[in-house]
Amino acid sequence: MAAASEEAIKQFSALMELLEEPLKTTFQHVHQGYPRGTLVRFLKAREWNVPKAHKMLMDSLNWRIQNGIDSVLAKPIVPSDLYRAIRDTLLVGLTGYSKQGQPVYAFGVGLSTLDKASVHYYVQSHIQMNEYRDRVVLPKASKMFGKQINTCLKVMDMTGLKLSALNQIKMLSTITAIDDLNYPEKTETYFIVNAPYVFSACWKVVKPLLQERTKRKIKVLYGSGRDELLKVMDYETLPNFCKREGSGSSNDSSDGVDCYSYDHPFHQELYNYIKQQALDQDFVGPIKQGSMHVDVPTPDLEEAKIVETIKSELHNFSGANGLSHSFNRIKIEGP
């Protein structure tokens, strides 16, 4: 297998040597000085099939060019109150690093409402988080730990998860498609913690959205998952919602600032970085308001089929648990 893998990398590399501008520059933004690692990620995403991996990467590079992704970190979401509202409703933060050096991200899945801005702003913020991870956070981790670090860990807190969260399935599908097709193999493991009973229903309908390789990385842990997580990270890096049972989705750092908050150092550094990038690019006049409109890659499953799956599973779950009345209040967004 090792020989076959090396041959695949060699073939893929030869194809990428043929790139011309602007694809060549965009590829440099993607690999950040480590082209081999990027080729391996896309090969893994397509089961080491060189033609399929090449098509996937070329599609991704063209997507980046068509949507201005290379300059997304120079497009701050303004005013700052709008960015604060996004941070309050799309709960994500950096808590530290694993024992192997991977950045550890906390996600408050159950308490994220995604209801204070348009879908375009949430997508823009998500892409900015991805790009900042790849251009700033991972290189910093590599320097800190003295080795190349290409992946992160994600701890997904399901505290507060309700069936109504599936109202956001369209946005979830959008973000999933963007990550699967343009940022493959960037997350080593997804840890699911504090999962309520309703998670079983939600998991059944979210699971079809995910690529097979992503499903294999997901670990559903008992309760807060503290004991399992301490095998891969120190106590100081644990999200607070994992430090004790029933702690909820708050994740205050030692200085009392929630890691999800706009006021947390990580988010302040990210937002200030984006504003500085905008200034460095010599934008004329004040920074313009308005979201990016990103073309979303088509996921492997058509959205109509996804919506029908959700409706079916919710009907089954609500009927079995006497929740028909509450189910009728849930609106599933379609195409």
UniProtKB/TrEMBL annotation:
Lineage, top-rank taxon, reads Eukaryota
Using the record's annotation, list all stretches that form the CRAL-TRIO domain.
Answer: 79-239
Q: Which SMART domains match?
A: CRAL_TRIO_N, SEC14
Pfam families in the record: CRAL_TRIO (PF00650), CRAL_TRIO_N (PF03765)
InterPro entries assigned: CRAL-TRIO_dom, CRAL-TRIO_dom_sf, CRAL/TRIO_N_dom, CRAL/TRIO_N_dom_sf
SUPFAM superfamilies per the UniProt record, alphabetical: CRAL/TRIO domain, CRAL/TRIO N-terminal domain
Name used for this protein in its record:
CRAL-TRIO domain-containing protein
